[in-house]
Amino acid sequence: MAVPKRRKTRSKARMRRAHWRVEAPTYAACPQCRQAKMPHRVCSNCGYYSGRQVVETE
Ligand SMILES: [Zn+2]
Questions:
Q1: Within a domain: residue 31?
Q2: Which domain holds residue 39?
């Protein structure tokens, strides 16, 4: 495996890490119950996905 010949300077490491940041998660309203849910995930409130119930909720 290729191994770096030289250590990156503090400045270069900081430049690279300047792009790391925590982003606020995106939410979309559930079409079934209007609760905020993550896109492309089953709704944790009503258990619906793609217009049908896929997991049981109480
Ligand atoms: Zn829902």
A1: yes
A2: 25-58
Q: Does residue 10 form part of some domain?
A: no
- Strand 28-29 with 52-53, pairing: unpaired
Cβ neighbours of 37 (radius 10 Å) = 21
Instruction: Give the model's pLDDT for residue 55.
Output: 86
Number of structural domains, the chain?
1
> What distance in angstroms lies between residue 42's CA and the mean position of ligand 1's atoms?
8
In this structure, the chain runs to a length of: 58
Residues with Cβ within 5 Å of ion ligand 1?
A: 30, 32-33, 35, 43, 45-46
- Residue 55 located in a structural domain: yes
Whole-model pTM? 0.59
Mean pLDDT by 10 residues, the chain (58 residues): 95 96 94 94 93 86
